[in-house]
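Exercise (ungraded).
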Amino acid sequence: MNAALGRAGIVLAFVSSLGGIATVVVALSTGRRALLRQAASFVALVAGGAVVAFAAMERGLVTRDFSMEYVASHGSTRTPALYNVATLWSALEGSILLWGLILAGYLVAVTFKFRRRLTDPLVGWALLTMFAVCTFFFGLMLGPANPFRTLATAPLDGPGPNPLLQNNVLMAFHPPMLYLGYVGFTVPFAFAVAALATGRVGEGWLVETRRWTLFAWAFLSVGIVLGAWWSYEVLGWGGYWAWDPVENASFLPWLTGTAFLHSVMVQERRGMLRVWNLSLVCATFSLTILGTFLTRSGVLDSVHAFSDSTVGPLLLGFFALVVLVAVGLIGWRGDRLRSPGRIDSPVSREGAFLANNVAFAAFAFVVLLGTVFPLIVESVNGERLSVGVPYFNRMTMPLGLLLLFLMAVAPALPWRKASAETLATRLQWPAWAGTGAVVLAVALGARGLAPLLAFGLGGFGAGAAVRQVALATRRQGWRGLVGRTNGGMIVHLGVVLIAVAFAASSSYTTQREVRLEPGESARVGGHSVTYLGITERAEANRTDRIARVRVDGGQVYAPRLQRFPNGTQEIGRPSVRTSPVDDVYLALLEAPAAAGGAVRLRVIVQPLVMWLWVGGGVIALGSALAAFPGRRRRGTEPASAPVAEPARDRPDPVEDRQPVGVA
Amino acid sequence: MASPPVAARRAPGKGPRLGPWMSSWLVMAVVLVVALALGSRTVGGGSDQDRVRAVASTIKCPQCAGQSAASSDAPTAEAIRRDIADRLAKGQSPDRIRDFYASRYGEGILLNPARSGPAGLVWVLPVVAAVLAFAGLGFAFRRWQQAAPAELSAEDRRLVAAARRARLSVGEPDGEPVDPHGEGDGR
Amino acid sequence: MRPVKGRGHLAAFVAAPVAVVLALLILVLATRSPASDRVTQSPIVGQATPAVELRTLDGKPFSLDRYEGRWVLVNFFATWCTPCRQEHPELRRFAADHERTGDAAVVSVVFEDDPATVRRFFAENGGSWPVLDDADGKAVLAFGVVKVPESYLIDPDGVVQAKITGGVTAAGVESVMAELGAGGTRRGGG
């Protein structure tokens, strides 16, 4: 019943996507614009189908309908309710279903937002692109990634999801957030295609796109941070980022998306970089598809990869199609849209944005190259080699530092041209903040050039951001906190927190493996760890062996080994004492069979880890503030108007220009 | 599209005025250099476990998907850590230890690809790309600087001012952009 | 890319090489087999048997040199590994076949397992060849064992001739030996 219903939903969504494509194509090619309004009904049908399919799957999981193959192989009667719901995205087919639902949601949102402009060919082309993407994903669910396969004989119980996916609550939030980000980049891509196809490549498409991109970007950022947090809380090695192919797959679109969010401002202000911006949007969407392929085809070794590989060729084919369309359109139209603008001085806001874009592009190149390089080498000479954490850390570190520097300097730079005097005055306090951070770090015993530079530039960047927000709030009251520029400064603060926490925690880790008898203590990184004893506890879906460990004579923590019925080996579940200064991370490696024996514990002391998660929250907050409409200014001073504007020579442009023309 | 002549906005030839900020920056530079010099002095290497971990983190755990021997709990990874500890205690250098593993498991066991041969490309390409990109950027800036913008004639300014007056008097809706590049977006 | 004064064909000129690079990337990705199916080539194939100190379960020193002049199949295994248990009868068949002719032998090396459990396993499942302990994992690392079960076929001159990943079959090992007997070194395989 559930399977049939879900299948019907998928078929409905697929057929409606095709119907939408046909309608838009007929309308655009015959010029019968009124027909474009009909697209809205297909959008409703696609969404209806997706919701029905999603609901059918959740219903199957919740009611434990083991006649569905997906439920039988990933669900179980013992899985607690929350993880039961989250089982939908714990395996390949379900994750595609979630993707489809979110895609349909974005389709509805776009149609609703532009409901009064449905007859506009620009919107028509955008809808066409989105229908095409929907057709692909729902087609995938009709074919190799069918979530609604049934079993002739239903088993009484299933194994449950992968044990690692059912012991931390973050698993319920990380994938949906990540997918809201990934899938959200479909919207700017659709408008980019529309702009290229219609040839209407003024700043109009951009204005439509910017806020959607920001929305997707914010979810992707939060999704990535939640994923890192999940790794930290669950995987037991004390890290949160391992430059794993799957992590890189989510990071790549983030890098190009971030580049776009910055360079888009140059286009708005100066009418430049149009082709570059279109390329960034297309690259971002292509990279989400490439990431999906890398994650789901099994070509790369990864802790997080899905195992199935039958959807691989189709995803790769779709990636090829997206690349073909994007590169083809840009190559065909690109030269017509290039604007003959010029940038007066490298020491200007737009100059900093250009440098920022080059740095982000280089960053993305390093990550992409490192990820696929083993495959390239293997295909050339058959050798197998690995590109791992040390490579990524070394290659991305200078780029990260450069980006931190630009982040500090750019907000203080005026558009067009800056004088040394302006810079020296505006950057003075932020630079003192950076110097103060270095001095403080050295005084606290931090050593090593790279982390110190990171702290210094972090303080510099934070100082610059705080200065902007302070000036803006002094001038505009609470409105100085909202709007793109001010919200962006809050985002910068979040990024600085993450950068500083990353530098500190990866440079000053103390890790020990200790063997402790009951009652015995060990000192690691200035903390005392006392092993008290072991207890065994049976939970609904597993059996836990829990070591009781007292940290610093205070609270007792409980790192454990968990045995799930579907797992052959015990899985460690670390326990972390978190504090603003440092984390004490306890992972149980070996527990005695009898109550009196010794345990082997991995104890990791890392400074400032907590601020990574706080930084993620600050990024989310800043993005929300940035999306909130800021101070409106009448569009009387077009960005690229060829008049010297006295207003632009203000001593301190706390820019809060709304994109002119937001409807 | 022409840009306003920057020089027109400021009296030409007037250099940056030295202000009180100058001394502040000098003090800051001194403080920063001293702090960085103090802070980047290397202190003696950590404990044995730290050294083992440093070597192990450059070696892939053969049994696992993409984890290093330092971070995995797989039996082979634990054996590798024990073996590295032994070898370090015997005085072997980290490079020699890595060579040993490469001789038994192949180059794929090393997480840092070799600097030479085809694998070296992974190190060289990003550097080349970044240098080219920044050089291209510098080149573009040079060209932009050389291409002096056309001076606006009085006639140009009059036309622009008239156009803007006309727009304002019509009472354009909030923030409608002037589209100076001729591609209206049809609204 | 970045706009430059004048409208040339920059976008087209940039798009073309980008398209070529991406096409090559797609080609590379399309021709890769799944990571799990790839067999790592073992660098020790063709090399002399790694020198490792081994001990029997009883703690007596054991050297692989004693098999000089005979083929020997060094089998890494653990009782907790299902394919290892499944290949056990095949090892027994191979050992029995060659016990009479005396031209080949089997040696098992225990990987991360408890000696008592291993003894019990052999008592229950048969097999009388030497079982060696590798408590510190030295042999595992010296041979470059990735994951049990894994077997290494060493020729009468003490050169490692083949690495077999996964469970072996007696017939499979025979055919590898026959192939090698005809000359030539076989790499990888399984």
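Further reading is listed at the end of the chapter. For now, observe: Confidence is low (pLDDT under 50) at residues 633-663 of chain A. The CA atoms of residues 363 and 396 of chain A lie 6 Å apart.
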